[in-house]
Amino acid sequence: MRVGLGQDTHRLVAGRPLVLGGVRIAYEKGLEGHSDADVVLHAVADALLGAAALGDIGEHFPDTDPKWKDADSGRLLDEVLAMVAAARWSPVNLDVTIHAEAPKLGPYKAEIRSNLARRLGLEQGAVNVKAKTGERVGPIGRGEAIAVDAVVLLQPARA
Ligand code: MG
Prior knowledge:
The chain has about 160 residues and is an alpha+beta fold.
């Protein structure tokens, strides 16, 4: 078994859509970034790369590459999953914490969870999504950014 840790932070700005775990969230701000800035999928992708000892998404998907401009981060995650499968690893479970002062993510957690489970080929019971505020402290608490922690476990892929 192999465990991997992923972390990502993006700034909240006006005039951008907010997409978390592939789910469009109704909010007056969105995340700044080269791609669609889906901070959840980026942290999950880095956790997968970490567990497989395959580096990080910055190496594999440079933000200077026009291919990823405003791109759906689901495509990036699919490429990472293909790299992990090629290295003969397969996901066992995933745990994600989203740090956001606003908007309230309770109504979206189930959809984000099922989206992540489908993308990783896992049952819902092997995926967990938590949401925490920043307790009004620091950049998260002031609503300036959203950050995500993700942990994934891999097992050897069956032949
Ligand atoms: Mg990112």
